[in-house]
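The data are quoted verbatim for completeness:
=====
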Amino acid sequence: MAKKNAKTNKNEENIDNEMHKIFFQESAVNFEESEKNYLAMSTEPTNETIEQALRLSHNLKGSAKAVGFYDISDILHNVEELLILFKNNLIEFNQEFVTLLLECNDRVKYIVEKLKINPSYKANYEDILLKINEYKTKSPSLPKENVLEDDITFLDEVDLVKTEEEKEEKEEKIVDTQKRRIKKVEDADEMIRVSIGKVNKLQEYIGELVILESMLKEQLKVETSNVLKNLFRQMDKITKEVQDIVMSLRLVPILPVFQKLMRTSRDISIELNKKIITEFNGDNTEIDKSILDEISDPLIHMMRNAIDHGIENSEERLAKGKNIEGKITVSAMHEGRFLLIKFADDGKGLDPALLKQKAIEKGLINKDTVLSIEKCFDLIFLPGFSTKTITTDISGRGFGMDIVKNNIENIGGNVQIISQINKGTEFIIRIPLTIGILDAFIVQVKEEKYVIPVQQVRESISYKKSDVNHVQGLGDILTLRQEEIPIYHLGYGLNTPKYQQNNNEEKVIIILQNRDKKIGVVVDNIINIQSVVTKTFGDELRCEQGITGGVILGDGIPVPIIEVADLIEGNEFKKCIAKVSSNNLHKAE
């Protein structure tokens, strides 16, 4: 009998744990939707936003009761009451009202995080209830005694039942109904929830499969059997299809990041007493989940900087003939296999001369350093750079921007800046849509192999010396369809042993897009275009700018991945090119 009771208790515990897990999943969606709705209400409190806020609060309150999280249901009961008062025009609307709703949402979210660790956690939330009551009592519209009449049909209306017996009976029915509703979430056949850990593991196996496939391809080069080769082609096709499906499993909309930016914009603009209009475009644009997590903090930092330092105060804007409201526009779109994020403000803009002077004053560059306008803009990414004389909790533009740039580059992205004084600043961020597996050119320089991602390549052409002219101070220039393109020999820049520019071997020029310009790199040969599995190098192997990681090819040898635009700007690359140019000049003399 004791064993039977123990087994029963164990089953009940498992059911409770499963219901808790489902509640946590439901609450995560609810918090996101509630914040989105409150922010929309902040701009324009319509009947639709009010009713949606009530439904979200009411549903989560019922779910919390059903799984025994009464601290949460208590807070949400008070939030619901506050919303009903507002809906019935018994309290006034202002930004303090929305701030209070957002604070309640944050507090419940915090309690849920604690409950995930310890389901028995008891929250201290008297302070938030006090704020709700204070707001209700100080509102001039609220009479001393009021009756809350709500015309929204909810699953339960416990709070409107007059007798205690009716209330208890009704509440028991609600809890039972909510438990059944939560349990039914598991039975939904349109969509299933899969942990990111399982997706990551699946992607790892696909990566290993791609490596094995490339090894098999190497072996088939000496195989004469057409049957085996046909079987390999079929397997290759299926592998690519499975690979695409796995990649798509990791793709999620960028909307949650945009929502965080909207919240940041609202909070900081209120704190700094600045009028800001924030516009978002492309919120359904999809990106790899792991990359989404990585770009959230950099973009939030950029939003804080834009409002604090990029956008002028009202008096300055009026004096310049601008609208009193500053405008920030964040857009997301796909560009090939990249995510393109444009972050623009209509504020002060960046002054290249001022940036250079600040960098000299801080000892970050030498006073004799010659910089283009674009390079002056890039100074804001130097560690310790800032144009603000007073440090605050809300950073001036440039404070910590080195971390922003590093975070973006660590996931294979880059940042470009376009700015005009008194017109505004735009950051253009390019990030790979997915990580782990990419399509790439495998190129050869002498005995060495290198990987260039397909996304960087525009075209490839045969190298003809007659098409290339050497211009003093600029280097080699290729004229292609009346367009002048700078050319770099990869062998010289990487200091490849025995590499010669003037030998008779046939070479190839790969034309790449470097932001708004084209560049070309000369290689001996393009071996193949294939899917490769990327491997990140440790810090001890990151010895050269432009080498972003490595891949394992069919012969089992690791090969470096090259970000060409960054590589040619690296100090080591420039030193090698300068050394070769000097040697060639001496030979000519």
Remarks:
- Confidence is low (pLDDT under 50) at residues 147-162, 185-189, 539-543, 585-589.
- The domain at 252-432 is CATH 3.30.565.10 (Heat Shock Protein 90).
- The chain is about 50% helix and 20% strand.
- The chain has four domains: 2-187, 196-250, 252-432, 437-588.
